[in-house]
Every structure is written in C-alpha cells, then in structure tokens.
Amino acid sequence: MQISYKLFQKPCSSGLLIDYNSAVPFHIKKAVVQSQFLRARRLSSNEQLCAESEEMIRVQLRINHYPNDFIEEARAASRRPKRTRHVNPACAFVKLPYKSDQVHQRVQKLVPQPRIPVRLVYEHTGSLRCVLCRSALHPPPCPKERDPARPRTRGRPKG
Hints:
Helices cover 39% and strands 9% of the residues. The chain is mainly alpha-helical.
C-alpha cells in the first residue's frame, strides 16, 4: 500500500485570491500565482496528483479573472529550476551601517568589487521603530535613577 497526497482545499474555502483587475502591483500578482503552483508541486506526491492540484489552482485563478496566458506563464516559471547565486568562498563580507544613498555610492566607488575579494553588506541601524519598540531580546534601557534627596520640581522653580 502506497500513501499518496495532493493539495487540499477546505469545502468552505471561498477561493479568493488577489483579483487580476485590482490595484495591486503586477510583480505581486505574478509572485502569488507562481507560489500557488510551487505549493501544488511541493504538496503533491506524484505527477498525476500534481496535475490535479494545478487544475484546481487554474480554476481558482480563472474565477479571480486571471488570463490563461498569464496563468500558463506563471506555471512554467514555477517548474523552472531555481537559480543559485555562486558566492566566492574566498570572499570576505564586511558589514557597514547604512546611512544614506550618497554614502553608499561613495563607498562603492572607493572599493572596486572585482579587484578586492570583499563584499559589502549594509545593515539598517536604529530606526524609530527599533528605538520605540523593544522585545524581550532587546529590552529598553533602564531610566536613570532619581536622587531621593533632591525634591521633584515641575516647570520652572519659583524663586
């Protein structure tokens, strides 16, 4: 006995995805459709069940007004092997704080990539969100202790 499986859709599923005619950027629509086909391939145990899963996705996409050529192009793209980036193992990474585009461009001009086996990586530092929102991993700094001998004053001292 062999176990087989395919993409499951709940009976109460509405089948709604991003509508093709909605005001969503094109690259988002393309990514959603490709990810649906990748999900069908990943969750199906053989080619026949994968074809059934893909057909179920095609029907959903047609309900959401996607054209057939768009669907087929995304399906074909999901079947292509994923490109891998080849990184030179002798290349060192240098992490720099990201300040602005002007600083980034100056640094890129100073460090010509082909001659030096160093890859620059930029890290965003302290945004307002990072300063205001803290987690258990990054607790907020403790407030300075108040000297109990000095009385509290509000506003300008009267004098």
